[in-house]
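In response to a reviewer's request, we include the raw inputs and outputs for one of the modeled complexes. The two entities were modeled together in a single run.
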Amino acid sequence: MSGATAPQRWASRSRWPPGLGLAALTAVAGLGLGSLGALLWQARGVHPAALWQEPWLAAVLRFTLWQATLSTLLAVGLAVPVALALARRPRFPGRGLLLRAMELSLVLPTLIGLFGLVAVHGRRGWAAPLWEGLVGSESGYLYGLSGIVLAHVFYNLPLAARLMLQALETAPAAHWRLASQLGLTRATIWRTLEWPCLAPLLPRLAALIFTLCFTSFAIVMTLGGGPRSSTLEVALYQALKFDHDLALAALLALTQLTICLSLWLLALSRGGAPSLVVGSVSLPTGGRWRRRDALGVSRVTDAFWLTALAALLLPPLAAVVLAGLAGLPELPRQASLWAAAARSLIMALGAAAGALTLSLSLLTGSRWLKARRHGAAALLMEGGGQLILVIPALVLGTGLFLLLRPTLGSGWQGYGLVVLVNAFMALPFAMQVVRGALPGLSAPEERLADQFGIRGRVRLRWLVWPRLRRPLALALAYAMTLSLGDFSVIALFGSPSAPTLPMLLYQQLGGYRWQGAAATALLLLALVVLVFVLLGLWTRRPPRYPWNRFAREERHARVP
Amino acid sequence: MSSKVHAAGASLAALLAAGSLQADETLTVYTYDSFVSEWGPGPGIEAAFEARCGDCDLEFVALPGGVDILQRLRLEGEGTRADLVLGLDMNLMAEARALDLMAPHGADLAPLDLPIDWSDETFLPYDWGHFAFVYDTEQLETPPGSFAELLEAPEEVKVILQGPRTSVTGQGLMLWIKKVYGDRAPEVWARLNERVLAVTNGWSQAYFSLFMNGEAPMVLSYATSPAYHMAVEETDRYQAAEFEEGHYLQVETAAMLRTTEQPELARDFLAFILTPDFQRHIPLGNVMNPAIDLGDERPQVFDRLIEPESLTFTPEEVRAHRREWIREWLNASVR
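The model returned the following structure tokens for the whole complex.
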């Protein structure tokens, strides 16, 4: 068995991974670059020079880079102690609630999230008396750079901490047992266990969050109080919608693409090294073993970080829920609400399935290439998945429209297109979640499996699937809820009087129906929670290994 | 088994595409989404028109806003599915006309009741309103009575605006200031920025997320907004401030496509627009002023709204200068 150390044996044997990966890459690149190309093709003349002479553009670019850097540093930096504290404390009252809240904040439609933030941190918010008592001046921190950064941290820190927690939980149980038996201190555990788990994750995570802050939070940016703090997307909106200046739109999109893609390449080349810790069947770790570092001073610091997380996340969500409860009496009067919810769920399921298929294809393809030392190609394949994130939804939609124009007819096709684009937009998130779990078996497990002749589908079913199951469910949940709350894509294609839930929300707001809108927002939140809870429950039961039938002690005996 | 699958598929399709069933004569109307929502004017108008025409089906296609309707027409060109568009305002008219896709409406303009004269043969008004600053009487007892007073107002009088690049109301304010101040507009923008709490992308966000949360005493909206609060929520708390310089006027119009396969039916619909059966859904459904005199049918709260002087540019002026004026605003605001 030569090359038995390659950790991706199950994949490296067969021929389908590169083919699948290539197909997915072609689809992603074709959609992204195709829509951009369509704009350029339809544009009459491109004059880059004229654009760069505008003073406002330089101001906007400078500000956007600055706020995105600051937001990323804070969100990722603060997520580390939060994730460590969560991993160190596997059971405390309210942990489940906190995890649910973390999942919520990312997928919350920005308009609803902003409502919650304003209700808590605004000039008349819940926190205003507190601020006035402490500082003495009127609370105005929600407006300006501080507000933008606060909102970005609110949206992105939970995502970062959630993914870090998952990475920490994939550390082999044997390591934790060893750490416990040796009575390792906090510093040693950090050096030998925690940091090696987190380090490979950080560059990609930072790149993802930077991209999110740089591009898609136009609603949050309005807290900045003027056009200086707007994003390139607003200029793009004007160019496309009001001026129909396709060339300018393409140029702005290219600017954004260049900045974000160079960052991604940097991140991927840094984070490309395989994790030092090769995953083992992930038992819920940490908690099984008494951790010496969970005692003493870390009791206080962990309590601090977890309280801070709760204080950041819970009040704005509570504000949304409270407003929604006040609107509940309106619910029975809304005929279209339930149909809209059903429609949204079906579309979200389709989009999530698509996102998952694409990300698995790209990741296995990229692993296959990496195993054959085609590093650059592997990088390209994995980086390709992020492409959609840096192409503005507006460009994607308009480009697709130009490409498919003769065939785009009824609303039915419009919905299909929305599902498709949503699948591509959820892809970067799904990849982040699945990627950490995809490394196959550890070398000793590989050898063992080979010796016993466990190959092909059997190996996939019994050795690979069990450890992929939970991350897949989490990825599915993220992808589903992201498209559940999406408004930007569906708004592009319009609909024949049959709205999805976020569209209904905007219609209600446009028609002064605050109460109804608040109730719709609450229903949306409830659906998001439901998706996460159901998928979590579904994958909670332990994998059905034959050895699970035996006593627990015997199970430990199998660790080499 | 397979028939079961088919049935499931069919009901799925029906659920997703609800409302797009084809009748004998379908009239497709592109409009904005708050118009077609179940509480908007759309459903009532659809029922009234279908009762009138007998065997026809009025199908609304909802897009996010007037600009999106224009954008959709540009992209689709002569291949558009639309027979009619409803929701292009005066400031988009010249752009839409330049596409050379519209046909004359042929309607009798006599019933029109607008604050300005109207003789356009392509675009038919269906409602109108003035842009205005709506204020919260609990935070502000005496609102500014003019732009000059707003610029001089004390520090705590903050306003919430919408950006002219993304919203119709924001663009309205830009034209309003340009009309009142002409070449002095950049200086006024710079001074107004000191009053601004936030510039949002859209009206919903400004009104719902910020203003209704009490974040600022004033928000850029319509002079008709208080009518909704007074009639439906039964509160006098929110009122519009009347500025002595006059208010910029928005007139929303409908037009038919020259590519329509049902010109007769399309013209019938346009003629129907200036009848009470259409117009009675406008005041509280769209929260705008009706385009004809509704007499007693107009809700009484509309008598209590401000009635300012109307300011306008011609659609051609707006088309010729909009980009330049937006640049002027941008560069004055990032300084």
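As requested, we also summarize the result in words. The longest helix of chain B spans residues 315-333. The mean pLDDT of chain B is 88.
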